[in-house]
Structures are given as C-alpha cells and as structure tokens.
Amino acid sequence: MRSRGGIMPGRLVSSTTATPCASRRGHSLFYPSSSSLGQHAKRACLLVQGKIMLAFNALRRAFDFRGRSSRAEYWQFVGCAALAGIATMTFDATVFGWYGTPVLSLLLLTVLLIPAYSVTMRRLHDRDHSAWIIVVVWALNFLGTFLMKFYSQNQFTAIGPIARFAWFAITGLQLGLACYMLFQLTQAGAKEDNRFGPPPSDEPIEGGINFGEAGGLAKGVMAKVSGQDPLAQIERLAKLRDEGVLTGEEFDAQKASLLKRL
How much is the pLDDT for 175? Predict the structure, then answer.
C-alpha cells in the first residue's frame, strides 16, 4: 500500500516511469513517459544528446576536409581539447616531473592534430573563406622562426638591423593574422548554402522550420542524422515522426529543405 506522499519503506514509488532514450551510438538518457510530459522530455533528450555529440564530431570527421562546421562544433571541440590538455599536462608533471618527457601530452597532441586542422578548415568554409589561409599561417610561422634565429646569430653585424626589422614585420603580420582568424572562427556562418556546401546540420536551415522555442528538437534530430545522404535522412526523420518525436509540420519542413539538396 502506497503512502500519501508516494513513498513506501525501503523504496521510492514515482507517479511516472523512466524510459530510456537511446541513440544509435549506444548512449542513453531518460525521459518521463507521462503523456503530458513525454514529448517535451523527448525533445530535451534529443537536444542534449545532439549538443554532447557535437563536442566529438570533430574526431568523427577527422579526415573530412570538405563541407562546413558550426561555431558550436568548433568551440566545443576546442574546449574539450583544452581540458584534456590540462589534464594530461598535470598527469605528466606529476608522474614524469616538469622536466621529464610529457608522454601523455604528446600522445594527445598526435591524436588531436589532424582533427584540429580539419575542423578549422570546415569552420572557415562555414564563413565562406578558403582554408588556404592556414598555409599562410604556417609559412609566416616558419619564416618568423628562421628570422629570429638569423637575427640572434647576426645581431652584431651590419645585417643585424635589417634582420631585426624583418623579424618585427613578420611578427606584426602574425599577430594581425591571428586576430583575423579569431574573428572568423567566432562569427556565425551563412544560413544558406555557399560554395562549400549546405549549412551544418546543427544550425538553422534556410527554408526549414524556425529554431525558436522548439528549436532543440530539430537541432537534435539533424545532429543525429548528419553525415547521411538526404534520402537516408528523410527516412530517419519519418521514423521519428511515426514515433511521435517530430510533428507533421516539423517533418514536412525538414523534408522540403533536404529535397532541395537532391
């Protein structure tokens, strides 16, 4: 017999049961199956899963140098990489000492190097800029290092002042380019297609629904089906509509935007 407060000795009785909301990747969250709250909780479940997976999307697309990536994907990856770097440096300093070989940090750098460059390229594509600017950054870094070494070896010779001026000029260009890159990486991309492809699936799609109050639903859904061809995405969206996760209007809007890409 249940008490008035819904609690019996030894166990907790709830008025709603928890049902797992499992993604295709095996992650699971929970939403209440109550008829009044079920659909809203499903929307929140998809939203949270979509946001969590964005942080790891750069790893999944490590060798994808085409297409576009949103600000959310880029900066979530940067944040996770920074936290991982702090953790590995702390571990290396504790185990190997400050002057020892940072084994774990070097391993992390090896794993994240290619994903970091690919997501940066796609982020620039999202801004409708060519990723060749990354080559310019590396060229200036190499030239700056060379001039600094050259100046240190010739600072007391006749060519010393020239080398010093060239080094300062390259350093100024590096700082200016760094500010330009930071500005581009923090700005939103175009909501419509550009020369590098359609907008990222976690961003609003031109001609689709308005990602306002119910925006988390469409964002979560599109994040789950990203990387598939449009027809496969439509089939996936149809299943979600049949399950009651998507409304008919939301399905029709997403279907219309996907058909435009065929």
Answer: 94
